Amino acid sequence: MTPSARVQAAIEILDEVIASAIGDGPPADTVVQRYFKTRRYAGSKDRRAVRELAYRAIRRSGERPASGRAAMLGVADDDPELESLFDGSSHGPAVREMEAGAPAALLPGWVEPELSAHLTRNEWPALLERAPLDLRVNVARADRDAIAASFEGAEATRLSPWGLRLAPDSRIDQDPAFIDGLVEVQDEGSQLVALACQPNNGLRLLDLCAGAGGKSLALAAAAPDAEIVATDTNRLRLAQLGPRAARAGANIATHLLDGGKEAQQLAEFGQFDVILVDAPCSGSGTWRRNPEGRWRLTAERLDRLIALQVRLLDLAAPLVRPGGALVYATCSILRREGAEQAGNFLGRHSSWIGQDVPFDGGRADGPGRLLTPAHDATDGFFVARFVSPC
């Protein structure tokens, strides 16, 4: 591919990413993979260059651009060499004709007042920097130091006792340690959410919004003899946990819940020592991994997510045994999904008490702690732990 053809390919990918963001379709990585699946003529260098161009434009545009061309023209505004590739050549982009490029911004304007007070402007760039690849060692079956020796350049994570950190471009899907279930890909912040549950053998633990089960697997590795129940209303996501648990040698019971009937179904399980509510959220804490997530989030969607979080917390509370714990977490850096949501829970359940989470790092934020890329080198997470009255 010529340099101009690479720019045009990036524009076409960006158009698909924008459409996917509007229609709540697949993420940008999936869009890129599908694009090149039907274009076998593109070599590895071409694919890498096009992907880098597309993500450069995505990271630069805080607001969703009008088109892929507008997004790429915005990048060209900062790069005269790229501007020269809008040359009208065969397979390249048309010559620029008095067109405005998408404006540069780290975050959507409406999001800025929603941020946690800890997120000062000097921390914003870290929200979009490329993230490392974090692994969680399956400590039920392997030793972290021994596993670290098998990965070139692996470093122990600072906050999680189970974590290893690799370079951003590392591939492990064909590594024997991954195939044998000795490691899982999991950001250190996500590992700390599981650590906040204080998993121990003999406990009954419920992962209420388990999704594909990453945190359920972390709980099972830390406490192999605990009773762990993973539930969700999303059949496709929950179905992924079974094969993952089998690979890890983890004993996790999964139950698909019917939306709107969760309370009746969960009542059959009795009470739990610990319930994790890793609630659906804006995903703003993972924008460094999924920068196009800024284009998907709207004020209306945020309001719906906050209402769902309230419902899930109030659904979980009566299922916690007296003296047990409820851990609330969101991969979010937004105040209303974090400190404000946690404070409101304590307001509705005045006999419950907040308890500090059992890990270093983060910053106190209302009744919980906030982890951020700039401060903790993790994805953004809010974590709070509440204890039920005896």
How much helicity do the residues have? Answer: 25-40%
Please give the domain count: 3
The pLDDT mean sits at: 95
Count of helix runs: 16
Assigned CATH superfamily of the largest domain: Vaccinia Virus protein VP39
Query: What are the low-pLDDT stretches, counting only 5+ consecutive residues below 50?
Result: none
Specify Rg, calculated over alpha carbons: 22 Å
Helix/strand order, N-terminal first:
HHHHHEHEEHEHEHEHHEHEHHEHEEEHE
CATH third-tier fold name of the largest domain: Rossmann fold
**How many beta-strand elements?**
13
What is the CATH architecture descriptor of the largest domain? 3-Layer(aba) Sandwich
**SS-based structural class?**
alpha/beta
CATH class of the largest domain: Alpha Beta
Terminal CA distance: 68 Å
Features:
390 residues; alpha/beta; Alpha-Beta Plaits; Rossmann fold; 3 domains; nine-stranded mixed sheet; four-stranded antiparallel sheet; 16 helices; globular
Question: Could you explain how this protein is built, in words?
Answer:
The protein is α/β, with parallel strands linked by helices. The protein has 3 domains: 3-105; 133-185, Alpha-Beta Plaits, CATH 3.30.70; 188-387, Rossmann fold (3-Layer(aba) Sandwich), CATH 3.40.50.150. It contains 16 helices and 13 strands. It has helices spanning 3-22, 28-37, 44-60, 68-77, 80-83, 144-148, 176-179, 188-196, 214-222, 235-239, 241-248, 262-267, 293-296, 299-316, 339-348, 373-376, and strands spanning 133-137, 155-156, 163-166, 183-185, 204-207, 227-232, 252-256, 272-278, 320-330, 353-355, 363-365, 368-371, 381-387. The strands form 2 sheets. Strands 5, 6, 7, 8, 9, 10, 11, 12 and 13 form a 9-stranded mixed β-sheet that branches. The model has no long low-confidence stretch (mean pLDDT 95).
